[in-house]
Amino acid sequence: APGPIILIGDSFHNLIDGIIIASSFLINFAMGIAVSLSVIAHEVPQEVGDFGILLDQNYSKKKALFYNTLSGSSTIPAAIVSYFILDITKAAIPYILAFSAASFIYIALSDLYPELQHRNIELKHTLRQFLLMMAGIGTMILVFQVHI
């Protein structure tokens, strides 16, 4: 059944998000805020999607909301615990952040790139996708240039 798999996967995903947030705050406050906002921005559509999957699996709205909230609640405890553990083992922080950045880039490109390869897609659509990817990269560069 997809419902429990979604909830377990989302709990693990949110736990990793907490570790990434803690790592970024240990670099500096501005990076912590930027990463936290990025995580929130990607979590909103994901949680809405998970909620929809749970509803599709015949969970009631109340039960789907409860389980979705429960699976999402692993982020904050993971961030707090990770903050103190990573403060002791600071050498791991660059590797954690590099891994998380690579994961985000891989996921984004694996979702967007196949769409760009369709032969019957209009040039306008391909250019729009490309410009949006470049806007995302530009936004990341701008945030880190201004705040770091």
TrEMBL record:
Compartments, record wording: Membrane
Mode of membrane association: Multi-pass membrane protein
TM ranges: 19-44, 65-86, 92-109, 130-147
InterPro entries found in the cross-reference section: ZIP
CC annotations in GO: membrane
Gene Ontology MF, one: metal ion transmembrane transporter activity
Pfam families the record matches: Zip
Record keywords: Membrane, Transmembrane, Transmembrane helix
The keyword Membrane is assigned to this record: yes
PANTHER family assigned to the protein according to its UniProt record, in alphabetical order: ZINC TRANSPORTER SLC39A7 HISTIDINE-RICH MEMBRANE PROTEIN KE4, ZINC TRANSPORTER ZIP13
Name of the protein described by the UniProt record: ZIP family metal transporter
Taxonomic source organism: marine sediment metagenome
Lineage: unclassified sequences, metagenomes, ecological metagenomes
